[in-house]
Design a protein that fits this description.
The protein has seven helices and seven strands, in the order βαββββαβαααααβ. It is α+β, with helices and mostly antiparallel strands and 140 residues long. The longest helix is centred in the last third of the chain and has 22 residues. The protein is elongated. The mean pLDDT is 94.
């Protein structure tokens, strides 16, 4: 079994409350399930096959709760030097609207590129760990 790391990353970035992804071990392909459709097409047979063959033939990719971007934000903040920027970002992620405030603060203090690099690296670690866990070879 093998998969392109880029395909896994695209799936991880695209996952959400109503969107999930599964790796088809037979065809070595990632399927997107959204709104009762597979890869944008109605295919009730494949949806049933995926739910019946869950993990044996169709391995679920990490979902939004497995990825946990809020935790990524916390890790990023705590890796910053203990200064004014760290304090600003710590306050930004408290309470409702944390994601929007965090992004706004990143832009205001000029750390957006640093954050995106950190986040992209975190997503790549999740993708590589998932592949390793299920014995899937990574194509670069």
């Amino acid at each position: 079994m093998k998969v392109s790391i880029q395909e896994v990353l695209e799936a991880l970035y695209g996952t959400g409350m109503e969107t999930s992804y599964y790796y088809d071990t037979k065809n070595q392909k990632i399927h997107m399930i959204f709104d009762g459709m597979v890869d944008g097409e109605e295919n009730p047979e494949l949806i049933e096959e995926i739910s019946d063959s869950f993990v044996e033939d169709y391995i679920p990719l990490p979902g939004q709760y497995d990825i946990n971007e809020y935790h990524m934000m916390e890790e990023y903040i705590y890796e910053l030097p203990a200064d004014k920027n760290q304090a600003i970002l710590e306050r930004a992620i408290r309470g409702k609207g944390a994601f929007r405030r965090f992004k706004d603060c990143l832009y205001d203090i000029g750390l957006e590129q640093s954050w995106y690099k950190f986040r992209d690296d975190a997503y790549e670690r999740i993708a590589r760990d998932w592949c390793e866990k299920f014995g899937i070879e990574i194509e670069e």
